[in-house]
Design brief:
- The protein is α/β, with parallel strands linked by helices.
- The protein has a domain at about 60-355: Glycosidases (TIM Barrel), CATH 3.20.20.80.
- About 30% of the residues lie in helices and about 15% in strands.
- The chain has 13 helices and 12 strands.
Length: about 425
């Protein structure tokens, strides 16, 4: 899914935009999220470097590993602890970010960009780092089909192998050789230059070359996640599947769309949720949901409830909700009812044994209060509101500007234009 929240340009461009805005009418800078806390102790994720063909399902217990996409840069890491606190100390074992797809040097993992994520991953042995990897530079530049076809064929002959070798070496150097790589995501659509449709055979050959190249780097334990968007889109995603030898996980990006489509229809549609589960089972692969969340149907609490239940039932290796408007829950005030559902379902969740497997009845996890308080109190999960609440309105004298997280990262927060600038000299 296209989003301005993903990295698409370099720091120099962000600084130039900032300078331009600063020269105009007054601006204000601020960080909207302010609730600090410490992260909960993580529980074990699936074993790193699992071999292709491993039995489907989540490893390390009955609870699927989960997290959220909170920002691609440093703020994404710092917000993990805050989200965990908001969820009553739930174990956020999955960190998810994206490599910028603007130029090859960034796809190789430019110095400084991945370090903070590597530090987060290695600070606890049981965490999981999920990294979306573009297969082409200029990945969101609207490159036409003819050029995409030619680029895919060049990739299939090995022209771009050295870029992916450099990325693999970089990840091993950072001590994150077990990273889950979501390579060429949503290839069945029309958004990205790394799309499959213009030449599926070349695309599959190119994928196989990338995986082979990265697996040849000493010390690597990567898992490669083949992740289309839900539904047919521009081409059936099964036509892009490169083969079991180079795929470790079969994922799906699944948002609440198109408008008016029920969750049951999302399950039953061609190339939908059930087809995804069936396909993965037939190929002996576990599943994942790297991107999911609300979209065309607004604050849809029923979608949120059903999607969470679907993942609990089918036990993906991991899932990460896309947490910004219009998709998200914690960082988006537009979806109060869905937010309450998400929080109530995942509040305090840890990787506990499956009660069905032990024969013991399920009981809610209630934290025991310490004799002497040593930390801020754990927040209480709210009930689901009966009616939608009104979204928070921006300040009357300040209009927020949507510049994308790459710009916001370098500015240190959001920008907004003061509406009273013309009268400040009076």
């Amino acid at each position: 899914m296209r989003s301005g929240r993903r990295p698409a340009c370099l720091a120099a461009a962000a600084i130039a935009v900032a300078a331009f805005l600063a020269a105009g009418p007054g601006v204000a800078v601020g960080e909207p999220v302010t609730t600090p806390t410490s992260p909960a102790s993580p529980a074990p994720p699936p074993a790193p470097g699992a071999a292709a063909g491993a039995a489907p399902g989540a490893a390390g217990g009955s609870t699927p590993a989960f997290g959220a996409y909170l920002d691609y840069g440093t703020r994404g890491v710092t917000r993990m602890a805050r989200l965990s606190h908001w969820l009553g100390g739930a174990d956020l074992r999955v960190g998810h970010t994206y490599l910028p797809g603007d130029r090859w040097s960034n796809i190789e993992g430019a110095p400084g960009f991945l370090d903070v994520w590597a530090d987060w991953r290695t600070s606890e042995p049981d965490r999981m780092l999920v990294l979306n990897v573009p297969m082409m530079e200029r990945n969101e530049k609207g490159v036409d089909d003819d050029e995409v076809r030619e680029l895919l064929r060049q990739g299939a002959t090995g022209r771009f192998d050295h870029h992916f070798r450099a990325l693999a070496e970089r990840l091993v150097e950072l001590n994150v050789p077990d990273t889950v790589l979501v390579l060429g995501w949503e290839m069945n659509g029309i958004t990205y230059t790394h799309r499959c449709g213009p030449d599926p055979e070349a695309w599959k050959t190119y994928w196989n070359r990338i995986v082979t190249t990265m697996r040849a780097v000493p010390g690597q334990k990567f898992r490669f996640d083949f992740t289309p968007s839900r539904g047919r889109d521009a081409i059936p995603w099964t036509r892009c599947y490169p083969g079991d030898a180079t795929v470790d996980i079969i994922g799906m990006d699944s948002y609440d769309q198109p408008r008016g489509m029920t969750f049951d229809e999302q399950v039953r549609e061609p190339y939908g949720l059930q087809a995804h589960v069936n396909f993965a089972k037939a190929h002996g692969k576990p599943i994942s949901y790297p991107e999911w969340g609300l979209f065309r149907n607004g604050d849809n609490a029923e979608y949120m409830r059903r999607m969470l239940a679907w993942m609990d039932e089918h036990k993906p290796v991991y899932n990460t909700v896309t947490d910004y408007c219009p998709h998200g829950v914690w960082q988006c005030d537009d979806n109060p009812r869905s937010t309450a559902v998400y929080r109530s379902v995942l509040f305090g969740r840890t990787d506990e044994p499956d009660p069905a497997a032990t024969g013991k009845p399920a009981t809610p996890t209630v934290p025991t209060a310490p004799l002497v308080p040593t930390a801020p109190p754990v927040p209480t999960a709210p009930a689901v509101p009966a009616v939608p609440a009104t979204a928070t309105e921006p300040s009357a004298d300040c209009s927020p500007l949507e510049l994308g997280d790459w710009v916001e990262y370098w500015l240190g927060g959001k920008l907004c234009t003061r509406l009273d600038w013309f009268s400040r000299g009076e």
